[in-house]
Amino acid sequence: xxxxxxPCNEDRGFLKQAIESIENQTYQTEFIxxxxxxxxxxxxxxxxxxATGDYxxxxxxxxxxxxxxxxxxxxxxxxxxxxxxxxxxxxxxxLEKPYIPTIKNPTLQDIINLNVIHGGTVLYRRDCFDRFxxxxxxxxxxxxxxxxxxxxxxxxxxxxxxxxxxxxxxxxEQKSLGNTDQxxxxxxxxxxxxxxxxxx
Length: 200
Description:
Elements: E1 2-8, H1 15-23, E2 30-35, H2 40-50, E3 55-58, E4 64-65, H3 69-77, E5 82-90, E6 96-99, H4 108-113, E7 123-125, H5 126-132, H6 143-153, E8 158-169, H7 182-197
């Protein structure tokens, strides 16, 4: 069983589409809507407490899984602890840009230098969380980035799935590169550097 957790502290009008993309998977899953006004990490960790699957995936309320996402991810994860893959970035004006990581099987040092793992494409074995804990609730962004580096620092094996696994919505309210305000991006970079320094 694959458990898909939707961490949500606000429905910005996209949640219904995210749920439909989970229901339209070619492989049966369970989805858990973990909703509160607290952090993404908090909502993910509460979702993990409810999840019953042997595999865990997250889907933000503003993103969409491709129909083959879970089926292809399960094939790729055999013999590995977690996997990542390709994504399609899309905008409300109809623009779409594919994302294919430049490094398919990155080391810890690789993703400290440049995070090539598109966060929304990752599937984890449940025991990654059982062994190494959940997401860090002290972080206000970069939660999955920190967790992926934590796994690599512990010797977990990462594989690349050569499939498009997610449609990633780009908009101005994102905590990632969607918000182009200069002061915000400077604050964001400080937080990312703090995360990197944990593993240097």
